[in-house]
Amino acid sequence: MSTWSDTLQFDTLSLSADAPLPSLALVNLTQWGLVTLVGQDSISYLQGQVTCDVVSLNARQSTLGAHCDAKGKMRTIFRLFHHRDGLGWLQRKSVMDTQLPELKKYAIFSKTTIEASTDVLLGLTGEQAQATIDNVLGGEGEVRAFDKGTAVKIDAQRWLLAVDSAAAGEIAEKIAAKAVLSDDSLWDLYDIRQALPRIDTETGLEFIPQSMNLQALNGISFKKGCYTGQETVARAKWRGINKRAMYIVSGQAENCPKAGDVLERSVGDNWRKGGTIIAGYQFSDHQSLALVVLPNDLEPDTAFRLAAEPENQWQQLPLPYSLDEEA
Questions:
Q1: Which of 43, 54, 137, 264 fits 271 for a cystine, CB–CB 3.0-4.6 Å?
Q2: Is the pTM of this model over 0.90?
Q3: Is 187 annotated as a binding residue?
């Protein structure tokens, strides 16, 4: 059975650390999944389940948010937006099997249908991404609905497309000749440079939202009503009990850092566990980047190393946003 992508090859790009990124790339987001909520109670139901303010979400905007357990530990981090006749949320595919049943657990009492979508997920990246969206899809705003799906602006050089397979083929046909085709490792690189958090299976139910900077990314509303895990999240803000944050680190590595890997930190002449890798990217010259959750009181010049590769030291890089910026 043929699919929309049979004639296309989405490979891992070979990029050195100092190489410019493609001015336009079409990314096949196979490691991501989409959840849809449809029904008149979808917004009110979700409002009581997640950290972000669903009620105030404009149809032309998207928001980050987290779905937590009762202890405030995150099952997933998602991007939420209006999609077709309801809501769509983008999250890592690895958590779908465990997170989705938890989200649906109490939906039997509400008029909402929650399910995994069959939409194709594509990314457009690069300095020409905005112009390409304008030319191919038209419309205005950071979330654009069209006949066969939705386009969502992620940042200045990225758009997400959630479309049916026919639309995916049509869009690919229009831009493939002028775009580099990539697997979603290129999306990982953008996420790491923008310090956008995620939850994979290896890091599920380990961190509260502030440990991955969601308060600085407008992913937590401290003004909305109760939701699952809200007591812990509020206590972390008002009592200042959160002792961790997510940072960007860089160094040489033989293997690409992956979610759940251990990063050690120097303590005098010794090394101790410093934090947990959230996502990693490796350039062709073995220079690597990673997102890692660390204690938020470390000195900026603290040395790090991967526990699995102790011969190479890593360093912390500046974040592209302030951790003091709260919703």
A1: 264
A2: yes
A3: yes
